[in-house]
Amino acid sequence: MNITKNLINWYSVNKRDLPWRNTVNPYFIWLSEIILQQTQVAQGLPYYVKFTSKFPTVFDLAKARESQVLKLWQGLGYYSRARNLHASAKYIVNELNGEFPNTYNEIIKLKGVGDYTASAIASICFNEITPVVDGNVFRALSRIYGISTPINTSKGFKEFKALAETLIDKREPATFNQAIMEFGARQCKPKNPDCNICPFNTKCVALQKNKILEFPVKLKSLKVKKKYFNFIVILSSDKKTVLEKREGKGIWQNLYQFPLVETKKTANFLEIEERLKDFSVLKDKSFSLSLYNDVEIVHKLSHQHLHTKFWVVTLDDVLPTGISINKLIEFPVPILIGNFIERFNF
Hints:
GO terms for molecular function: 4 iron, 4 sulfur cluster binding; 8-oxo-7,8-dihydroguanine DNA N-glycosylase activity; adenine/guanine mispair binding; metal ion binding; oxidized purine DNA binding; purine-specific mismatch base pair DNA N-glycosylase activity. InterPro entries: A/G_AdeGlyc_MutY, DNA_glycosylase, HhH-GPD_domain, HhH_base_excis_C, HhH_motif, MIG/MutY, MutY_C, NUDIX_hydrolase-like_dom_sf. It is a single chain. By secondary structure, the chain is α+β, with helices and mostly antiparallel strands. Helices cover 41% and strands 13% of the residues. It is globular.
């Protein structure tokens, strides 16, 4: 079975016309790969267009404020990608004189870049023979070869990486890498792949054993935690509110949110009223409390589910240090907060 030749032939017919496929500029390829981590092409494409328009060079990205980068990233999730992207841009400009590193071993040193991203950039931009191994590749190879080694183990990664190294086209590493990624994304899909038109349907071990959906094998992850978030939306008589910047480590680091009250279970009015006594901006002030959403909004993250309520505090006073309501849209916020701001009639 000549998987290498067949993959490249399949790709020549079925590849999508995507903007990052019309360039070998490492800045653009890097940008696209970071955006497409944990993100499907349909969702990531508009962000790629926005970023390349706003920051057409690594110098433009490096001199931007982090808040600008996070705001442009808003809605994509996994915000550490944006923070790492910005940090690496500054590193490239300040430490490498704006010259993008041109080998796998140097590219992987960039913050937020792992084996897959480094391999993609090195092969596509610099023709280095280094295979990509991502979710699409795991799925395609595990099904074709019937590999049951769990992909989320170091043993599994090494096994698939070694197999990919035997398959990569030494003359066209960029084409091969893009072909196998595209094949996993469009043909060998996670659910309901059309095996009737697959070029490997006569050799695919998973298909022959009728076990397509059992591959790739993955060890069970830890149980998802439930958290109960109560955001306090303060509205003053002078049309101001309060936002807080999230400090410390975490997926929402350096993003803004309304003041947060976290509880061990679904909170009621009495509990929230009691917690509001700790709010210095409300001390000795008259206000009313109302619940915006009777049904909790469940925001699902990879490791936790946030059961969320928004509580509206209407203040019969001014907020000298507050943020003008009409400036809310200027702040980078988690998509959970962004959706509320869009829906709420300020």
